[in-house]
Amino acid sequence: MPTPTPTTLSGVHHLGDQTLSDWEVPKPEGTEYTTTFSLTAVPASADLILDVFNTDHNNPVLVNGNSVGILCINTIEGWKQCTIKIPGSALRVGSNTLTIQSKSRGGNYDDFMIRNIWVTPSSDAQPTTPTPTALSSVHHLGDQTLSDWEVPKSEGTEYTTTFSLTAVPASADLILDVFNTDHNNPVLVNGNSIGILCISTIKSWKQCTIKIPGSALRVGSNTLTIQSESRGGNYDDFIIRNIWVTPSSDAQPTTPTPTTECGTFWVGVQELWFDEHPESIIGKLQTFDFDNDGSEDRIVYTFEPEEVAEDLFLVRTIEFNKTDSELFEGKIVLKFENKGDKPIEYSHIEEIPKSFAESVDDLVFSIPPDEIIDPDPKVMWKGLRVGLGSMLAIFIADDYDDDLDSLTLYEWYAFILDGAVTECNKRSGTSRDYCLLLLAEEFKAAEPTYVCHEIENEDLKNLCLGRVTGDKKYCEKIKNEDLRKLCLGQEEEDEEEVTTTPSTAPTITIPPGVHHLGDQNFTDWEVQSPEGTEYTIPFSLATVPASADLTLNVFQTNYNNPVLVNGQGVGFLCIHTSESWVKCTISIPGSALQIGSNTLTIRAWRRGSNYDDFMIKP
């Protein structure tokens, strides 16, 4: 890899318009900083890397007078490393000029500091010219004619072009210039949503980079679609130009690794049930590892399309994206697609789960609802207009006004499962059981044994537990031969019979006594006042089994209350919303256990500022 060539920045620079006595450089040197760097060859792209301190605004970065992006937002008074991609089209052989500007809002410039600036060719970049897509002119999308624009008349509300790949990278960058983008305008590759255009509310060009996951790409021809979003029947008017797609700097050609797809196990289950009863499938889980570090950067759960009006289909998607703090922030996307032969007007009511937001005041809507039916939250859009053959998307996000709104991956899995289990419970009988079984398999990484215990059919419950925990003792309990073989991994009917000795899973119980967890007093409860929001006890094991069963009784559990062993999440308490006692069993995988002393922790889950109140006893 080429040796990075640092720019001539040897100190700390304060940009802005205020003197801040407690800063490393109290007095600003101005609202713009310029330096130069030199290149002997032009790479496909380069990385601008620097440290930023207290950046609150969208502060522009320019190379040779061309916008290449904005400084990373870092609203705390601490240093944060920031990387900005510089396309090769903005670079030249010899001397190049780098400019960083402080953004003004209402006459007040952003005050921030920068240090340690250097520019280096991206890790896999060789001197080359990126291959652009077949976009040779400027395109105006929207529904208005604007006489002072470069292209006054809009060509429609959707633009489609194609690009070709000889190999599929782990990820690619879509780079284009945008002008006057006000709405959340969707971008799709091969029909899959990959994000929205950057917002640029001023009438000037801004370069925009959108990451395309490798799972959305394919060898050969690919289709790129950019859509204008409609709000209340009015489409966003904007212009695009200079579109091209290039493999991300760290991406190597690879075959995309499918996420939780139906492998050998599900082929067998499908033959038994899903092929004839597709109503058991309610959605699909996808995870994305953009930086190839072995951990999820984005989680998407897409529910099956629902026809909400004649020829109008709604697809709900729950998306979570990793933040710089390694937590996840989420959003709900409602996509309405018109598959008919005429425009459709539709009024929609959406009830947002309280596990996502406690109140409508905690939410941000890309299209504000026309009516707040219930601040709990339940909202309504009136007269949504979806054009012929087009799509309307509504984004709902938490406003993230405190760190508590960003959750761990495990907690977001719990949120998705909560909604998905609710959908399964709309079904009945075997259809419901298979729906829960599929969910448990898809979310196996979260070890959702509580979902398995929701299954009524004993064979399917044991199949689920065998798959999730890996403990074959559950497989031996299955009476149906085909399901037992699936659980044991015996795919061929003539396979030699395997004799196993059912394992004896130890049972873990809590000491005598009734414990109330939560944050409220209930005068008619056996224990009126809560002892806190967490209950912890030790237990000891002489050996580590393949799995163990935690058994206890629960009283009025409404939320997904986590259960941890040795600090590792192993599942949730059973949901039981009535004021009565019910027995609950949670399977603990052997990987969470250890010889000697172990710790069991049960926590009351919080939604907004309210903890779940419940009682537990042996």
TrEMBL record:
Top-level taxon in the UniProt lineage: Archaea
Protein name per its UniProtKB record: Uncharacterized protein
